[in-house]
Amino acid sequence: MGLDIHFVRVTHSSRINENKEAILFLHGWPSSFLEYLDVARLLNSSSNTNYDLIIPSLPGYGYSDAPLRPGMNPTQIARIMQNLMQRLGHSSYVVCGGDWGAAIGTSMAQLYPGHVRGLLITMSAVATTWKHYLQLALGHYVNPSILLDYDEQEFLVRRFNAFDFAKILWREGGYFHLQATKPDTIGYALNDSPIGLAAYILEKWSRWSNNEIDIDQSINSGLDRFTLDQLLSNVVLYWTTGTITSSMRLYFEYASQISSGHDDKILKGPLAASVPVAIVNYRNEILYAPRTIVRSKYPNIKLWLYHTTGGHFASMEKPREYARDIEKFLLQL
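The line above is the sequence of Epoxide hydrolase; the predicted C-alpha cells follow.
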C-alpha cells in the first residue's frame, strides 16, 4: 500500500478540461506547501493564464503520510512526484523548487527527462567530483576569479572569502550534521514543546533569509521579511501534524544514500541536455555554486538570474519576483 500525498491544486476551474501548462512546486525544510501559495495566486490572477499549479507536501511533511520504512531519499521522492503528476493527467510539466525541492526536482529531470519540460531551481549547490572540490578550494583560498565570472564577482565575492565561508559553515552547519545522524533525538524534544519547535524553525527562517545580519544585534532578527501569519502558519503546521521528526529524517536518508553509493549516477551525473534549466540566485541563499561548476551538472541553462535581495525562502519573501521569473522561463521553453 502506498503513501497518501497531500497537495494543493490552483487552476481556473472553468477551464479544467483544457490543455494547461502544468507546474509542480516542491518545497524544502523547514518549509511547507504554504511557501508557494502566494506565487500560485499571482500566476493565476489573470483570466488569460492557463496554468495547472500543483503544490504537494513532501512525504513526511505536513499532511502527507510519513514513510514507515527506511529509504525515502530524494530519488525515491522524485519517483513519487512523477507518479502524482501522472495521476493528475500530466505527462509533461515544469518543476520549480528550492532546498530539497531543488534536489528532488533535479532527480526528476534525470530520471524522467521526457516528462520534465523545464526545471527552475533557487539553490544550485553542486560540488560532486574531485575537480569541483579542487575548484572550490582554489576559489575560497587563492582567488575568487578562478571560479567566478566577471558578473558574479561583485554579487558573490564574499562567499569565496575563506574566513567568511568558514564562519558561515561554523555558524550554520550544525543542524545538518544533527539531522543527518540523529534526527529522532532532537525530534522527540521538538515535538514536546511548541516554543522549542518555533525557536528551532524560526531561527532558520531568520538566518537563511538574511545571513548578513547579526542576529544578536537585531531586534527582529530578519523575520520582518515575512508576516507573523506566514511564520506562525508554517510552525503550526509542523506542530499540529507532528511531522518535525519525519521531515528531518530526509537528511538522514540523504546521508545514507550518499554513503551507500547506490545512486551515484543520479546524484553525481549531469542532466540530459534536452532538459531546459533556470538557475535563480538570491543574495542571501545559504548555498551557492558558481556558474562554471553548475554548467557541468545542468548543461542546458536557458536562464541565469541574480537578485540582490532575497534568501532561502524566496518564493514567500519575494513572490512577485519569483512569479515573474517563472514566466520568463516559460517563454524560453
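Note on the example: The first helix runs from residue 37 to 43. The mean pLDDT is 86.
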